[in-house]
From TrEMBL:
Residues 121-171 form the RNA polymerase sigma factor 70 region 4 type domain. PROSITE patterns: SIGMA70_ECF. Belongs to the sigma-70 factor family. ECF subfamily. PANTHER family: RNA POLYMERASE ECF-TYPE SIGMA FACTO, RNA POLYMERASE SIGMA FACTOR. This is RNA polymerase sigma factor. Residues 23-90 form the RNA polymerase sigma-70 region domain. It comes from Hymenobacter jeongseonensis. NCBIfam families: sigma70-ECF (TIGR02937).
Length: 182
């Protein structure tokens, strides 16, 4: 079902729940993996994905449709991730590097990456990026999102996103090269 059809059904109180269920089915997996790449832990990603859709439910009738629905949902998910990571740092009084180390330990324990040393190194490198650079890297590398769409999701200019992605790629390459030679 197309987004505009979902939005039309959502406007009708009789079909609102059905429309929202269709929206969740359509975007839940994408949102979950977007969130999971940022927070790493499955349980945290599950909780945040649920929080994202609760916010979507609360604010969908005010959605102005000046952006794509998908982009709007991704922006909510992105903000939830960044707020979660920031809150985690404040809550545990952790510097940026300690949060990265904690997330890296979760990656190493992830059975999905067992035996894939290169993927593990890539994930460890990505975790060492600042949150916003990691976000840009994930959106571009994994989701293959165009810069214009990324600009809508992040509220950042295309030029700044390109620069951020370029810096992120360089840092990832350096890390992987340095740690694979060991």
């Amino acid at each position: 079902m197309e987004d505009h059809e979902i939005l039309l059904k959502f406007q009708d109180p009789a079909s609102r729940n059905l429309a929202f269920n269709q929206l969740v089915r359509k975007y839940q997996s994408k949102v979950y993996w977007h969130v999971r790449k940022m927070v790493i832990d499955h349980d945290d990603a599950d909780d945040l994905t649920q929080d994202v859709f609760i916010k979507v439910w609360k604010h969908l009738e005010n959605f102005r449709q000046d952006a794509q629905l998908f982009t709007w949902i991704y922006r909510i998910a992105t903000n939830e991730c960044l707020n979660f990571l920031s809150s985690k740092r404040r809550k545990f009084l952790l510097p940026l590097t300690d949060v990265g180390a904690e997330l890296a330990a979760k990656i190493e324990a992830d059975p999905a990456l067992a035996g894939d040393e290169i993927e593990l190194k890539l994930q460890q490198a990505i975790l060492r990026l600042p949150d916003k650079q990691r976000l840009v890297f994930n959106l571009r590398y994994y989701d293959e999102m165009p810069y214009e769409q990324m600009a809508e999701v992040t509220g950042t200019s295309v030029g700044a996103l390109k620069a951020s992605y370029h810096h992120a790629v360089k840092k990832v390459e350096e890390y992987v090269t340095r740690h694979t030679a060991d």
